[in-house]
Write a structure and sequence with these properties.
439 residues, 2 domains, binds zinc ion, alpha/beta, 16% strand, Aminopeptidase
Amino acid sequence: MCCFSSIRPSFVCPAVLAAPLLLLLLCYPVARGLAQRSITASAAVSKKKEPAPIHLKVLAQPGDDVPTLLQRYHLDGYECNVSEFFKINNLKEDYRLKVKTAYKIPVQVFTYNGKSIRTTLGIDDWQTAIRIDAYNKTAVEKGLRVRTFLEDKELWVPWHELHCPAESELAAGVAAEAAPNPTGAESLKEITAAKGNRVFPIFGKNYEKTSLVSRKLQGKVYYIISGHGGPDGGAEGMRAGHSLCEDEYAYDVSLRLVRLLVSHGATAFMIVRDPNDGIRDDAFLRCDKDEQVWGDREIPLDQKARLGQRTELINQLTTRYLKAGIKDQTIIEIHVDSRHRHQETDVFFYYRPDSETSKALALKFHNMFLRKYAKIRSQKQYNGTVSARSLFTLRETITPLAVYIELGNIRNDWDQQRLVIPNNRQALANWLCAALLAP
Ligand SMILES: [Zn+2]
């Protein structure tokens, strides 16, 4: 029976007293839920008002490739900017760009709230805000933008500042401490891991600007030897009335490889150097004899003296880097073989005998070529080999890793295509670099 039916004035039933409390307890969560919903709704309404930041769109200039374009907007040196570039433009990973075409770049444009960069972006970190402020100021100074973000309320925010803090800190850290440099500034001209104007004259006018695409090879040292050089042109082939000199083609592929290595932050030495031949996009590379060895050393004709000169140099440098605590040092020597003209010879690899690590590296190169040829030349099997060979530079050097590569038979018509087509020379360098970048 319910107590409500028999109320006497003097006696107040506790249930009556508890009713409003009960009601409150019952209604509170509902009320609270309603209140919250209206708050979020209003927040959503206000949130909906802030459009997602757009990506800045810019036109590719003549000669631009992805690294160059990113460098112009001070976005080089961050791997995440490169991957973001391909993502926002729905592009496959190919560095070539169409001139005068508009591309989105990894810079987000936020509407500046007129108060501060931190509140505009909803971040706490001062250092990041300071870097973003500096970025916008530099953009005005460099003429990349006309008005300041204070004037047009368009705050440019580089992708790496908000989306890849690890790389930003790394970049900030690396910029502070210079690259390992045990031998003194002057003689290490083309080796730099730090940002800077990143102009390397040895690559020639068309290629000297080399942006930092990533830091995957940071702290690693490479000695790239292009075979022969100077008075010794190496093996020779003939094509359409042109002499094909081994040292010129080995030189061009080596130079392209060095450029890729430094674009990934490596320390790379081009051991044989030509004072006036940068990376060349010609089919027939003129044979000359003015190559020297690093340090402006004349190349002797005598084979033993010639090989001794470059191995001694590499051993000196290796020793200095080892003393500086850098063990990750590799020699890659590039040649072109000469066999009977009917013999097709795929790219093959020699490694230093009794060196498991050199063998592993040679196999890594071989694997990469196998995979690449399976994709682009599926109708024709890749027959490159990997074997140990006691060659002078492999035997006489103390550098931890050493691999010797033959690019083909310079006298064979089919193999010559691998040499005289500039894109093929670039592909050879790309594949070697890809193997070095692979985990
Ligand atoms: Zn050779």
